[in-house]
Amino acid sequence: MIAGSPISETPLEAVSYVAAGDRSHSGVTQLGYRSIEESPRGKLRPTVMKKEDDILSDHKRKRANSTARDTLRNYSMVGWMIRAHTDFVCGFNYIPDTGDEVLDEELEAFVDEQGKRSNFEVKGIHSRSRYLRIQECCKVIDGDALSVKRLVNGRDCRQRLVEGDKVRTPQSARRGESHGDEGGWKNGVRQTSEGRPLAYGISARTSGGSFKDLRSVRTENAFHHGFFNRYDTARGISPLLCALAEVIDVGEAKQLALAKAKISQLLNFAHKRSAVGEGSEVEIDAETPHLFEIGIDEDISIIESNQPSDQFQSFHDRVIFAILKALDIPISFWDESQTNFVGSRAALQRYIMSVDWKRQDNQEFLTWDTDWRIRLAIRNNEFRLPRSISVDQAVKHHWNPFGVPWWDPSKDVNGAIKKI
Q1: CA–CA dist 167, 61 (Å, integer)
Q2: Does residue 292 carry a pLDDT above 80?
Q3: Contact 96, 103 (CB under 8 A)
Q4: Residues β-bridged to residue 189
Q5: Cα gap 286→265, rounded to integer Å
Q6: How far is 220 from 197, CA to CA, in rounded Å?
Q7: Residue of 151 and 9 predicted with greater confidence
């Protein structure tokens, strides 16, 4: 309002409140949500509400997993994204907290020995750290994965990784598979009417690409890893699923751009004549120089091609940046030239905040596995606990995530000291 100007006394009923893009034929403005109104600019979404497990059934989940794994095989960008993701969510240090220094040292040595490839998983191929990265990769690609406890010779603890496509409803229970909020088997998980999981169905792949039932595992003997965006779902959904179409489009556009660039390189020069006459074919060897003899009214020019164009490269980069956001990865991780030092450090700090909850799933798994191994070792008399320490106290520990290296050690140390 301008000082000294008269105050408007327009009645409130006469004021027209305009909702963007929402004016009826009668001229009266209707307030509401544009996303739920029919419009020639967009299409209304279906109003049928379903659980994610009903939308992504076993058959559709198999197709989604196959597509995601194919992109991992053929697109280096997807492999880099997963490696960058696992670098931040799969590194941990074991910290015992029993209160007894001698026992803590013994537990550290025991946990370190149990993490070796010969002791951690049933195949004897992968150490704890590598197993954790593979497990996280399966979780990202398939949406979820299952770690199952295995006891070898009655005393040796091993983990078995079950990839997401092998968690399936047994054939004997498929006819009675539940829908909606009913209890029973659904997408490989047997659950109560409230959605609490009771068991998981595990299958094995056959040479023909089908599956055969193996057994069901109770929830206390398995750890279910997954990405869950909704409460009413028993299976995880891959965060890459919303970006797979863009990944494939980027790959196809890149191939077409390379083909166009190759074609432009095959067209070496243009020979311009003032009049049409009989000419002779000139054979050019690309590896040796060639001397042309031309007339006064003739000209030869090299054909240049700006392929791929700057506009295509810019759009290509923008699509890649959007794909990176499926895993919350900053743009500066992919292309360091996109920002300066301050911007890259701010992006790193923001990304560390975003991966905190993703680490918790792996920390919980490591605690679950370590607790099982230590309790079994105590029961088998591999440890002699002091009289002042109980079994529950002996299994107290933490799995702390790896830190990020300091940018400037001297400044960071001084800052940490001043903070204390």
Answers
A1: 11
A2: no
A3: yes
A4: 186, 200
A5: 11
A6: 10
A7: 151
Give the bridge partners for 96, in sequence order: 397
Burial class (CB in 10 A: 0-12, 13-18, 19+), 140: buried
Question: Which residues does residue 204 pair with via DSSP β-bridges, in sequence order?
Answer: 212
Asked if 402 contacts 86 with a C-beta cutoff of 8 angstroms, the reply is: no
Read off the pLDDT of residues 66-116 as tens digits, 9 standing for 90 and up. 999 999 999 999 999 999 999 999 999 999 999 889 999 999 999 999 999
In the chain, the percentage of residues whose pLDDT exceeds 90 is 40
> Which phi-psi region, left, alpha or beta, contains residue 143 (left: φ > 0; alpha: ψ -120 to 50)?
left
pLDDT of residue 300: 61
Contacts of 35 (CB under 8 A, 6+ apart): none
Contact status, residue 164 vs residue 142, Cβ threshold 8 Å: yes
- Asked if the model's pLDDT at residue 44 lies above 80, the reply is no
Q: Sort residue 244 into left (φ over 0), alpha (ψ -120 to 50) or beta.
A: alpha
* Residue found under tokens 């696992």: 86
Q: Contact, 168 vs 201, CB < 8 A?
A: yes
Backbone φ/ψ region at 29: left (φ over 0), alpha (ψ -120 to 50), beta: beta
Helix H, strand E, coil C: the string for 21-42 is CCECCCCCECCCCHHHCCECCE
**Side-chain-side CA neighbours of residue 306 (13 Å):** 5
Return the DSSP state at 167: B
Buried b or exposed e, range 11-36, using 16+ CB within 10 angstroms: eeeeeeeeeeeeeeeeeeeeeeeeee
